[in-house]
Amino acid sequence: MRGAPRTSAVAAVAAVAALALAACGSNGGEPESGGSGSGGADEVEVFTWWAAGSEKAGLDALVKVFDEQHPDVKFVNGAVAGGAGSQAKDLLQTRLQAQDPPDTFQAHAGAELQDYIDAAQIEPVSDLYDEFGLTDVFPPDLMDRLTADDGEIYSIPSNIHRANVVWSNRQVLTDAGIDPDATYSDLSAWMDDLAKLKKAGVTPLAVAQAWTQVQLLETVLLSDLGAEGYSGLWDGSTDWKGPEVTAALEDFQTLMGYTNTDRDGLDWPESQQLVIDGKAAFTVMGDWAEASYEEQKQELGTDYSAFAVPGTDGVFDFLADSFTLPVGAPHPGGAKAWLETVGSAEGQEAFNKAKGSIPARTDVEMSTFGEYQQSAAEAFKSDTIVSSLAHGAAVPVATLTAITDATSKFTSGASDLAAFQSELAAANAG
Fold first, then answer.
1. How far is the CA of 26 from the CAs of 124, 248, 362, 402, in angstroms?
2. Alpha-carbon gap, residue 125 to 134, rounded angstroms
């Protein structure tokens, strides 16, 4: 979180504003005073984008633990559906600006929180780390990314995810004459096999709507620039207009040429399903995708493979879902209870087993987790950690929005590579 550029929070669209204000008017009466005290402890509205699939399964598992730990606090589900939280974030910002905050909301740990901090919309929760005994059970790399420029911590993470993962259908590869156990030292080697798949009439690489394309872009930048060069994009030490970035964008353009033409009409579970169903060979997706394979009784190493994006082996592209304490939360006591469960070993074990991620805590026993999750936990201990672009760890919301807009224009043919690079540089110039 340190070193991230500061920017004001993005405004929400008018239609969403009307919806949020209508919801605000239905609450009735004035909200109870905010703060991290024990007031308003009878319920908690938890605002997330975990509305379907493994995400909802994880939330349900966490709520079960919450109900056991805090039986006197009513859980109110404020989930809003939408890929990577885009719709939820718009509605959330409208509510915050209307001074109608939920009691707690999901946000990606890292630079994404800076907009809320700058707008004085969330309170520090540093004291809760001491109260809940979290400081000693979260790894140092995570604590550093949770700590804002002012030295305070503003959220409690529920998990850790890895974004730079390739998922493949082993049978599709075998049928196309490609070794399903093949390893790729770089993107060029991987693209050779993608070309073979395309020639064989197979969709080589499945992607979905714009945010998944931004995630693919970040992994290409990470592969071609290396961990140090990639991180330099966010602290200013890597030149967005430089030839190395140009080469990476050319690789991204090539990869997009191997993707499904219906991508803009899909969300990530649908593009993931193309691989599971044998309609595509590969996809790049965070390791929340692991739960999709488990749900459908797919076996790692038999039905599918999972490996780091070529050129990024030994690098862990990090993101974490976390929960905040909004200024003026109607039920701060309920929010505190929820944050306690989120940070607890019991809550993290239940949640992450269902969602496919790994616990943020280092004291959760991993032997009962799946094979992939155990390998991810080991990788997080040993790999070089970098912050995800697409999932709010590397840049604030406004910067990500500008990058997403530029990417969407480029992949839809509305801009060329030179314009794309220029727009990316402008997005990160603040």
1. 29, 50, 42, 34
2. 11
Q: What is the pTM of this model?
A: 0.86
409, HSE (Cβ side, Cα atoms, 13 Å): 17
What does the block give as tokens for 429?
A: 């110039």
**Per-residue pLDDT at 29 exceeds 50:** no
- Quote the CA–CA distance of 54 and 68 in Å, as a whole number: 21
DSSP codes, 271-340:
HHHHHHTTSEEEEE--GGGHHHHHHTT--BTTTEEEEEPTT-TTEEEEE-EEE--BTT-S-HHHHHHHHH
pLDDT at 8 over 80: no
Answer for the pair 247, 311: CB distance below 8 angstroms, yes or no.
no
**Is the Cβ–Cβ distance between 219 and 285 less than 8 Å?**
no
Judge whether 324 and 122 are in contact, CB under 8 Å. Answer: yes
Q: For strands 203-206 and 280-284, give the pairing.
A: parallel
Query: Taking CA 265 as the corner, what is the angle to CA 317 and CA 397, rounded to the nearest 5 degrees?
Result: 45
166 and 307 in contact (C-beta within 8 Å)?
Answer: yes
Beta strand spans in 163-294 (E): 165-169, 203-206, 280-284
